[in-house]
């Protein structure tokens, strides 16, 4: 054995077989980096499902105010009268918040692990061969998306920065008033800086998905020569569909296509 | 008929010991044959340094034919230098041009502490191998050849992973300092073969968990595959992740875990 040098993460020599710690199964799994990547993937898939259906639902905007507002009302009263109004929606929202928290926690702890794995950086410039812009900027794009998410909720969900949120409207033929979602969307996007922030955040979301949606396959071990070439196509296609759909809304409002 | 490369400027990392502060040192190579390997170029430089009464640059090397995994070096920001699918020992000066400036650094990872100059301690890899890189084999007389049928595609795939020479370029190239390609190559090598099935799931569990003690995490950049002198595909990483998932989620009795 050559010269032995201790690293700060414990002695490099000695036996690797430690006594097994017994922990609850999921915690045990989550304690490893590979397990955290599963958590990243699962929470990523949940949020991918959300952004896709959020975009598809919002396409109702092009069908007019009544369609969008009735769709919003449908979400509010999901499974009513089996469940009280709003309950199912809040359960779904709770699930998404949990998934977001899991995604953030895994990302944070993996980043810390990676920092510890290379405390002294390369002192000369790296020449990356394959790593692309998307994979290199996951943290940055993720943080911008997070900031956007906070703004977006304050804007169109809680109405803190949008006075139109909370207004109700009675459509002909309806027996009760529904929330006037359409009007608040228009009011939001008529503010040019808001629309621009929305567009930038969604393009970054697309970049995040371009790497993330592909990365899921590797993290879960879904690798097969029969479908490997479709993995990148899926990630690109998914990112493109979400971005094009979402970005079309503020552009349509600013261009006056919907008003 | 060999040509010569002129006016090479080398920026070499010098560091007296693991805890010492390192720095880049500049050396000039006025003329060198393009048939010299990169390591021979360093040999020539070292001859000169020793003749001048200076200390030679310390770097790892052994077989110099690309099969032992001892040589390393981050050359101009790429593990094993600019030539794909080769270790530093198989890189030749003909890949460079007159007047080039070449920066040489050691692998950098907390699991690979610098011993001196460009030499690092890669025994963290030994810890991973110890924890699962073996099979249970019967003792006694040598078995007949081809006693265990192995389909050709399986044998080929296992060989592709077994090519790993454990040089550590994957860790060095990884922006996260992860060892997933190394560990996965070793896991895939044995897990693909019939002889490796007895420990298939306990192996992947132990090796992945030992890897966690020393290295960073995989974020699927793919830099390891580009740096690997044996061009091992990140497909093996997916196989490792799949087997780890199975090891964790399948019925433990069915998997005959220890």
UniProtKB/TrEMBL annotation, chain A:
GO terms for cellular component: membrane. InterPro entries: Cytochrome_b-558, SQR/QFR_C/D. The keyword Ligase does not apply. Keywords: Membrane, Transmembrane, Transmembrane helix. The chain crosses the membrane at residues 38-56, 87-108, 140-161, 195-217, 238-258. SUPFAM superfamilies: Fumarate reductase respiratory complex transmembrane subunits. The keyword Transmembrane applies. NCBIfam families: sdhC_b558_fam. This is Unannotated protein. It comes from freshwater metagenome.
From TrEMBL, chain B:
GO terms for biological process: aerobic respiration; respiratory electron transport chain. Residues 155-184 form the 4Fe-4S ferredoxin-type domain. InterPro entries: 2Fe-2S_ferredoxin-like_sf, 2Fe-2S_ferredoxin-type, 2Fe2S_fd_BS, 4Fe4S_Fe-S-bd, 4Fe4S_Fe_S_CS, Beta-grasp_dom_sf, Helical_ferredxn, SDH/FRD_Iron-Sulfur. Pfam families: Fer2_3 (PF13085), Fer4_8 (PF13183). GO terms for molecular function: 2 iron, 2 sulfur cluster binding; electron transfer activity. PROSITE patterns: 2FE2S_FER_1, 2FE2S_FER_2, 4FE4S_FER_1, 4FE4S_FER_2. Residues 8-108 form the 2Fe-2S ferredoxin-type domain. NCBIfam families: PRK07570.1. This is Unannotated protein. It comes from freshwater metagenome.
């Amino acid at each position: 054995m050559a010269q032995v040098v201790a690293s700060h993460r414990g002695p490099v020599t000695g036996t690797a077989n430690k006594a097994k710690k017994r922990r609850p199964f999921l915690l045990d799994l989550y304690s490893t980096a590979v397990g955290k990547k599963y958590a990243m993937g699962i929470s990523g898939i949940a949020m991918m499902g959300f952004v896709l259906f959020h975009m598809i639902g919002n396409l109702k905007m092009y069908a007019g105010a009544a369609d969008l507002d009735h769709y919003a009302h449908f979400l509010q009263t999901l499974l009513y009268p089996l469940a009280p109004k709003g309950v199912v929606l809040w359960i779904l929202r709770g699930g998404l918040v949990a998934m977001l928290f899991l995604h953030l926690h895994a990302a944070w702890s993996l980043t810390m692990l990676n920092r510890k794995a290379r405390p002294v950086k390369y002192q000369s410039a790296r020449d990356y061969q394959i790593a692309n812009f998307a994979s290199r900027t996951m943290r940055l794009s993720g943080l911008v998306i997070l900031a956007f998410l906070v703004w977006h909720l304050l804007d169109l969900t809680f109405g803190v920065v949008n006075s139109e949120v909370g207004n109700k409207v009675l459509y002909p033929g309806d027996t009760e008033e529904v929330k006037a979602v359409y009007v608040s969307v228009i009011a939001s996007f008529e503010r040019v800086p808001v629309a621009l922030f929305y567009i930038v955040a969604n393009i970054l979301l697309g970049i995040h998905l371009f790497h993330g949606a592909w990365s899921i396959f590797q993290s879960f071990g879904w690798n097969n020569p029969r479908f490997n070439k479709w993995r990148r196509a899926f990630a690109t296609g998914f990112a493109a569909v979400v971005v094009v759909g979402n970005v079309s809304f503020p552009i349509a409002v600013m261009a006056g296509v919907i008003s | 008929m060999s040509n010569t490369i002129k006016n090479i400027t080398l920026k070499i990392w010098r560091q007296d010991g693991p805890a010492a502060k390192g720095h880049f040192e500049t050396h000039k190579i006025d003329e060198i044959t393009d048939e010299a390997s990169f390591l021979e170029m360093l040999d020539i430089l070292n001859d000169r340094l020793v003749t001048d009464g200076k200390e030679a640059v310390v770097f790892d090397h052994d077989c110099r034919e690309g099969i032992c995994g001892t040589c390393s070096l981050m050359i101009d920001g790429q593990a094993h230098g600019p030539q794909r699918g080769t270790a530093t020992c198989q890189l030749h000066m003909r890949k460079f041009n007159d007047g080039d400036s070449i920066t040489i650094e050691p692998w950098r990872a907390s699991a690979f502490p610098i011993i001196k100059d460009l030499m690092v301690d890669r025994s963290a890899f030994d810890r991973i191998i110890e924890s699962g890189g073996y099979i249970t084999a019967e003792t006694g007389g040598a078995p007949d050849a081809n006693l265990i049928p192995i389909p050709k595609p399986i044998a080929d795939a296992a060989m592709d992973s077994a090519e790993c020479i454990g040089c550590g370029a994957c860790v060095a190239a990884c922006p996260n300092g992860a060892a997933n390609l190394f560990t996965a190559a070793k896991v895939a090598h044995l897990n693909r073969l019939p002889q490796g099935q007895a420990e298939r799931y306990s192996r992947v569990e132990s090796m992945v968990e030992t890897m966690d003690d020393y290295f960073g995490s995989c974020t699927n950049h793919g830099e390891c595959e580009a740096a690997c002198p044996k061009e091992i595909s990140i497909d093996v990483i997916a196989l490792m992740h799949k087997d780890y998932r199975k090891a964790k989620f399948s019925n433990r009795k069915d998997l005959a875990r220890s």
